[in-house]
Design brief:
The protein is elongated and about 45 Å long. Helix 1 packs antiparallel against helix 2, helix 1 packs parallel to helix 3 and helix 2 packs antiparallel against helix 3. It is mainly alpha-helical and about 100 residues long. It has one domain. The protein is built from 3 helices and no strands. Helices cover about 75% and strands about 0% of the residues.
């Protein structure tokens, strides 16, 4: 059906948004910890590092609402963004708390 936002798409977009926000917050914490945080750089980072990801997911999701075959593109973009942000979050947590000994 045209322009139908299904709940799976909404959940996928929300999950990536939460990962992006977690990554940004951990990046801020990491920068503060190592005394490299510059508030003046935050808007540029959001403009170049956050908004393109979320915007492209919105565009792909909008296209998928019109053309059902575009769902594959949307979910592929969600999957790649999820893997990227999970790896970034892991790296930042390791930098903040150090390696865990097993």
């Amino acid at each position: 059906m045209i322009l139908e936002l299904n709940s799976e798409m909404w959940h996928a977009f929300s999950a990536v948004t939460i990962l992006v926000l977690a990554d940004v917050l951990l990046g801020i914490i990491l920068a503060i910890r190592f005394q490299r945080f510059d508030l003046r750089q935050l808007p540029k980072f959001l403009q170049t590092g956050v908004l393109p990801v979320l915007g492209s997911l919105l565009v792909a999701g909008s296209a998928a609402m019109v053309v059902e075959e575009m769902l594959v593109l949307f979910y592929a973009a969600v999957a790649s963004a999820t893997v990227k942000y999970l790896a970034d979050i892991k790296d930042k947590l390791t930098a903040i708390f150090g390696e865990l000994e097993t």
